[in-house]
Write a structure and sequence with these properties.
The chain has two domains: about 90 residues, no CATH class; about 190 residues, no CATH class. The N terminus is likely disordered. A two-stranded antiparallel sheet has the order 1-2. The protein is globular, with a radius of gyration of 21 Å. The chain is built from eleven helices and two strands, in the order ααααβαααααβαα. α3 runs parallel beside α6, α6 packs across α8 and α8 runs parallel beside α11. The protein is an all-alpha fold and about 290 residues long.
Length: about 290
């Protein structure tokens, strides 16, 4: 018993010191601590997964290899974030992640808005003859709708909790709101380069703009992440379904800078218009309703 008491006493002082430091640390220190802990904890999992998946860097990841790595990384995020929030004396609700019926309603609304915004943009491209719909591949989409939906909810939820929740909230404590929005959106965009550089680089402006619109969605939802989460998940679900089932074929009538470099909407004018238009809708309704 005396040994246990001595052990607790021995560790109590450093823990209290760490709590005091993190509670008063600048936002950038807290942010760096989170990302360092996240990567360090994930590396052993990634190493084992890479061996099991027979992936040898710097060979590019295949989609079937990328998914287990992505899921393992994202499942770790809430645990690491919980630890950091404990050290900084915060909760997930401080980051906008609130579990109530209002969040579910905002999630559904955001998801619908994300899907409809993409449907409008692609309809415009169909009308202009920039792309065509592969009706014969529609049957391929049916079996993957639910799995992609669940993945979209996971990825969208974790990314919103990390970037529009934790990262934006921490930065907003030390910087003006617009600076926090710009920096958090820039980090959000740049971290996508971790997975694929060649295809992601042309998307960076679009990803940054997407991050800014998702920050706006958090404000429009009274600091709740529900709307941003739904919007993000809706975009992921629609794009991933289209890509996986190969529902769209581009005709080549215009440069891919209009339709999207490497068939990625955010790397083209159409995707930028989609994100901008969605942002305008969110701003209008949040301002007048």
């Amino acid at each position: 018993m005396f040994f246990l008491f001595s052990l607790v006493t021995y560790f109590e002082s450093p823990i209290n010191a760490l709590l005091a430091f993190m509670g008063n640390a600048p936002a950038l220190v807290v942010v760096m601590a989170f990302f360092i802990f996240w990567i360090v904890c994930w590396l052993p999992v990634a190493t084992v997964s890479a061996i099991l998946l027979n992936w040898q860097p710097p060979k590019p990841l295949q989609p079937e290899q990328k998914m287990p790595l992505l899921v393992s990384l994202y499942l770790l995020a809430p645990l690491i974030l919980w630890g950091v929030s404990w050290l900084t004396n915060k909760s997930f609700s401080d980051y906008g992640f609130i579990g109530n019926l209002s969040t579910i309603g905002s999630l559904a609304l955001g998801f619908a808005l994300g899907v409809v915004s993409l449907a409008i943009v692609f309809s415009g491209q169909f009308g202009l003859g920039w792309c065509s719909f592969e009706k014969t591949n529609f049957k391929l989409a049916l079996p993957i709708l639910l799995p992609i939906f669940l993945i979209a909810l996971l990825v969208g939820g974790i990314e919103e909790l990390v970037f529009r929740g934790f990262l934006f909230t921490e930065l907003a404590q030390d910087y003006p709101v617009w600076v926090a929005a710009v920096i958090s959106s820039l980090i959000f965009a740049l971290l996508h380069l971790v997975w694929e550089q060649r295809e992601t680089a042309p998307q960076l402006p679009g990803l940054w703009l997407m991050g800014m619109v998702l920050v706006l969605a958090r404000f429009a939802d009274r600091n709740n992440l529900g709307l941003a989460w739904g919007l993000h998940a809706g975009w992921i679900w629609a794009i991933a379904t289209i890509d996986t089932a190969e529902l769209i074929t581009y005709t080549g009538k215009v440069s891919d800078w209009f339709t999207g470099k490497n068939k990625k909407p955010l790397a083209g004018l159409a995707g930028i218009i989609c994100v901008l238009g969605t942002g305008v809708i969110i701003w209008f309704f949040s301002r007048y309703f």
